Amino acid sequence: MDKTDISTLLGEKGIYIMNHAVLLMHCADNKGIIENITQFISQHEGDIIELDQYTDRVNKHFFMRVKWNMDSFTIPKENIRASFQQSVVGVKDIHWKIYFCDQPKRVALFVTKLSHCLYDILQRFQSKEWDIEIPLIISNHEKLRYIAEQFDIPYHVFPITKENKLAQEAKELLLLKEHNIDFLVLARYMQVLTDDFIAHYPSRIINIHHSSLPAFPGAKPYHSAHKRGVKIIGATSHYVTAELDAGPIIAQDVCRITHTDSVSDLIRKGRNLEKTVLSEAIWQKLQHKILTYGNKTIVFQ
Amino acid sequence: MDKTDISTLLGEKGIYIMNHAVLLMHCADNKGIIENITQFISQHEGDIIELDQYTDRVNKHFFMRVKWNMDSFTIPKENIRASFQQSVVGVKDIHWKIYFCDQPKRVALFVTKLSHCLYDILQRFQSKEWDIEIPLIISNHEKLRYIAEQFDIPYHVFPITKENKLAQEAKELLLLKEHNIDFLVLARYMQVLTDDFIAHYPSRIINIHHSSLPAFPGAKPYHSAHKRGVKIIGATSHYVTAELDAGPIIAQDVCRITHTDSVSDLIRKGRNLEKTVLSEAIWQKLQHKILTYGNKTIVFQ
Amino acid sequence: MDKTDISTLLGEKGIYIMNHAVLLMHCADNKGIIENITQFISQHEGDIIELDQYTDRVNKHFFMRVKWNMDSFTIPKENIRASFQQSVVGVKDIHWKIYFCDQPKRVALFVTKLSHCLYDILQRFQSKEWDIEIPLIISNHEKLRYIAEQFDIPYHVFPITKENKLAQEAKELLLLKEHNIDFLVLARYMQVLTDDFIAHYPSRIINIHHSSLPAFPGAKPYHSAHKRGVKIIGATSHYVTAELDAGPIIAQDVCRITHTDSVSDLIRKGRNLEKTVLSEAIWQKLQHKILTYGNKTIVFQ
Amino acid sequence: MDKTDISTLLGEKGIYIMNHAVLLMHCADNKGIIENITQFISQHEGDIIELDQYTDRVNKHFFMRVKWNMDSFTIPKENIRASFQQSVVGVKDIHWKIYFCDQPKRVALFVTKLSHCLYDILQRFQSKEWDIEIPLIISNHEKLRYIAEQFDIPYHVFPITKENKLAQEAKELLLLKEHNIDFLVLARYMQVLTDDFIAHYPSRIINIHHSSLPAFPGAKPYHSAHKRGVKIIGATSHYVTAELDAGPIIAQDVCRITHTDSVSDLIRKGRNLEKTVLSEAIWQKLQHKILTYGNKTIVFQ
Fold first, then answer.
1. What value does the CA radius of gyration of chain A take, rounded to a whole number of Å?
2. What's D113's domain CATH number?
3. Do A251 and A120 share a structural domain?
4. Across the 301 residues of chain A, what is the mean pLDDT of every consecutive 10-residue run?
5. Residue B117 half-sphere exposure, CB side, CA atoms within 13 Å?
6. How confident is the model at residue B13, as a pLDDT?
7. Do D126 and D275 share a structural domain?
């Protein structure tokens, strides 16, 4: 009985570290590609646990995610990537990555002054809903240090000015590399990152923006929503790219408002969305379910 | 036992024509204004059925809707407006209207080629969910004439070109005045109305736009939503104003989509939203629940 | 360029009759089963268009849906089922069906007195959102005959009493067989079908129930919801089985209500849900995306 | 400029302690009752900030909530209740309460082993989203003591067995009275309270149940939902009454699930709902917006 079963039967829950591998790939549409890859796995005694594929019929492009159990897999872990490369010889322009699920992901959190997303993430971390490591929290303010201390996580403050931004980011990058960080989460981090910084973590920086993008990008979206008189507000989690609030969207959610809701009410109601949507995006990322293509995401089932 | 009770008890449903009056008003915030107005009604033996008020604390502005039963009201209908004016003497900058609910509203529908909103409205009309009259349907195309014929409603076609637009609108206006139309519904009418036309029906032309405004105004919003890779699409019902898709929002709704949804899927899923949201706006209008203020709506409970 | 592309590019939409085949299958979990089946298709020059699989890890059971293009398929249509049987020799307890998408499905509608679901379906039918045939409408009342006449569809009335139910159902079954009906839709049909009748169409009778099942099964669910004071109401589409309102759930949706909503308001708001949820279930059925297992459905992506 | 304005303009948010009073009342429908009460307030120089009323047309019953600013109110606080009683002399069977908003509410939290609702509440408390006091946390387990310590709140453990339940509840009641608790929040407290305990806090114990009541009351609702194959799960916040999970519903929310969601996934997704719905109910309670009538709630706008 594997761990998934145990967790289901006992009513426990969360992401468990398991001896699984995940392939994320895309390529031009190609008759036989599913057979080709499933054959590679089953011939080496891998047991496919999840497979989801999608074909973009307009652009003739194929996308797939496969997860398999490695317990009986006959190829040693260190050779799998080379073997897989062999198996897809001749598939044109194939892009692929293989991830192993036997180590917890290492996540860095970036915050400024608002605590709701931070607590939401830390609660999931502490209760083992997510089996991750959080080696550090980075902020441009001292304000939330007490929360880092509540959870015994190192808290590094890098105040940002126009003049020192590049230098501070260089220090942050050093720290992130040092801690071998898998991906970054901007949990209401109120600073724009430079293109150079972002380039170090392509599709590996998750932001939460407090509007239904593409409506109301930039600063003070709840004020803009209130002014426009919308009846529904939202939150959007996306990968950070060079253009502000314009990266590939991972998750969105909304809630209804009425004319009686002041800007303060929008801010209050929106916080519920921000927490849920950011955590949804992190959850998908932890399961290697997100593929970016152009400026869009494929979020596998 | 009044008609509302009967409809509730017998499981029937719909808007019934009743001997009610509705006051919609707004003015600068004013201590005692609620007392002032409720006194006017109760002193003349009106029985208040619904009262909803809202104060914008930032702009110090007060809004109210009151509905009362006229059965024992001691002021004759034709004198009520004058009497009310007396009762609020001294209230600065008050804007108000009184509506009587003893006549079905007369609604004109505008359509082009898509039938889903039209059938949705006609079904509600025919089943008496809405006790309205639809004296005519106006279109810029012949395509949906058969539907008008199914329901035995006059169908007038005014093909629009850049050259003839003003002349055609003049004919439409004549027809609308002739039929004593209370308000217009653009049920996926694919023509931009001129400012002059709109000025004849301020806050009396309801449009349905197939996106979550302010995202994706203008043409082909589903194509834009697909291109941006959003995870939620929407529809918005609003009053038509001179600026395209920028009028006061009345109602909105959304649904989730995924990367697997093509533009066709968005169009298909969006139609469900368009029908529901447009009908929701019409329903609020029929009950005199919508007040516009600036470029926003107050939609009373 | 195939029809899907055309419809996407031109902004047309709907289900088109195409030269596709769909396999729906389930069996005990089985290493290599995906490879086995995708090999069968690609070796005979089938081009896989959609593949979705799911493994129930607790019960060790595997489910899959595959759709492929038959244009270059080397096995003649009449031999495909036999060939497939060969290809899965040795897979224990496999249940499977292959459907061909080159003929419109033939759907029978059952109604009583409420027109909203009926119009909603007929609008989708007439606008070619769904490429189906509706050879007949069956009712236990005369009331909606005029709608059948509007759309020129034969309307058969079978009044039902306790005494004549079996005899009437026998006549209905005869008619359904005669018209070679693929599946039945109960569009607010207010009669309970006998177990014997249901047995003729297992997983082929779709009902809409006006509550969030399992809450409020049986009669007058909106009255019960109002009495209980719920803040959310719903609608549920499910396959009809011998136990009333207890069959496998296909689709559900909900909307918010408040204390101000009377039973009539619930009925009115609920109609929107009923239309959307029933049509969602029909749409999934038309695409062969629903598999029943135990008393549950797998609704493939 | 009052505090509300400041908070709106500066983008701050939360419940502020203010010199306001709130009247919650209900009585048989009564021509002139609104005038009667608004007159009482405005004649004594109270400035009405919010007024919401509702008439149950079937049962001829009237409900109202009024909030007014006390800054210039001419009746001393200690005499208001007596004065109000005078003003409604002759109104039959009137039930009413007046609350003052110049003191933070004192809330007791009850928990067992799950931390998500507890952290969610404590984050709102600590960030001043809610201006409340939490004098103590009560649990039947030691497990969450570390969280109480993180936030420096006294944590009292009362292990419950069938034998000691009455005795333990007596001790809990003593503690609650001692701390002058306004209302209790069961934040996933996994013990059934006795009728006697509940009777001490009528409409003052808020529970969160992890299903869309009335579906799946009692233990393990996510397991039951999974077994039934529903496509939507929910959470319900309600007042605790003698009958388990059958008290007046305050707030509900739902989310979609699919066949791919295991019981663990339901538990994980449901936690988001539980947090949001419980906090929504607490928020309404803090604003004195909830009136119970029969087994239902009126939640004013």
1. 21
2. 3.40.50.170
3. yes
4. 37 62 95 92 94 94 96 96 91 92 96 98 97 97 98 98 97 98 98 98 98 97 98 98 96 98 97 98 98 97 91
5. 32
6. 36
7. yes
For residue B281, what are the domain limits?
A: 105-299
| Residues in chain D where the model's pLDDT stays below 70 | 1-16
- In A, which residues are within 8 Å of D13 by CB distance? 264-265, 267-268
* Same-domain status, B167 and B245: yes
- Give the end of a domain, one of A100, A125, A155: A100
* SS3 labels along chain C: CCHHHHHHHHCCCCCCCCCEEEEEEEEECCCCHHHHHHHHHHHCCCEEEEEEEEEECCCCEEEEEEEEECCCCCCCHHHHHHHHHHHCCCCCCCEEEEEECCCCCEEEEEECCCCHHHHHHHHHHHCCCCCCEEEEEEECCCCCHHHHHHCCCCEEECCCCCCCHHHHHHHHHHHHHHCCCCEEEECCCCCCCCHHHHHCCCCCEEEEECCCCCCCCCCCHHHHHHHHCCCEEEEEEEECCCCCCCCCEEEEEEEECCCCCCHHHHHHHHHHHHHHHHHHHHHHHHCCCEEEECCEEEECC
Listed as ranges, residues in chain B with pLDDT below 70 are: 1-16
Using a CB-CB cut-off of 8 Å, the residues of chain D touching B47 are 31
Helix ranges, chain D (H)? 3-10, 33-43, 77-87, 116-126, 145-150, 165-178, 195-199, 221-228, 263-286
Tokens of C146: 């005029």
Q: Clarify whether residues C23 and C64 are in a common domain.
A: yes
The answer to whether residues B21 and B121 belong to one domain is no
Neighbour-count burial of B119, counting CB atoms closer than 10 A to its CB (0-12 exposed, 13-18 middle, 19+ buried)? buried
Kindly tell me if the per-residue pLDDT of C3 is higher than 60.
no
Shared domain for D95 and D181, answered yes or no, is no
- CATH number for A87: 3.30.70.260
Do residue B93 and residue B224 come from a single domain? no
- Angle separating helix axes D263-286 and A263-286, nearest 10 degrees: 170
> In whole angstroms, what is the distance from residue A28 CA to residue A88 CA?
13
Asked about C245 being catalytic, the answer comes back as: yes
Catalytic residue among B120, B152, B182, B245: B245
| Tens digits of residue pLDDT in D268-297 | 999 999 999 999 999 999 999 999 999 999
Of C34, C42, C51, the CB nearest to A32: C42
User: Is D13 within 8 Å of chain A by CB?
Assistant: yes
Mean pLDDT of C126-151: 97
* C221-262 pLDDT per residue, tens: 999 999 999 999 999 999 999 999 999 999 999 999 999 999
**What pLDDT is attached to residue D2?**
37
Tell me the C-alpha distance between B155 and B149, whole Å. Answer: 8
Record the pTM.
0.95
Residue of D120, D182, D245, D261 with catalytic role = D245
State the total domains in chain B.
2
Cβ neighbours, 10 Å, residue C252? 24
pLDDT tens-digit series, residues A137-148: 999 999 999 999
From chain A, pick out residues whose CB is under 8 angstroms from the CB of C2.
57
Of D83, D100, D117, which closes a domain? Answer: D100
Same domain, yes or no: A75 and A115: no
Task: Collapse the DSSP code of B26 into the 3-class scheme (helix H, G, I; strand E, B; otherwise coil) and give the result.
Answer: strand
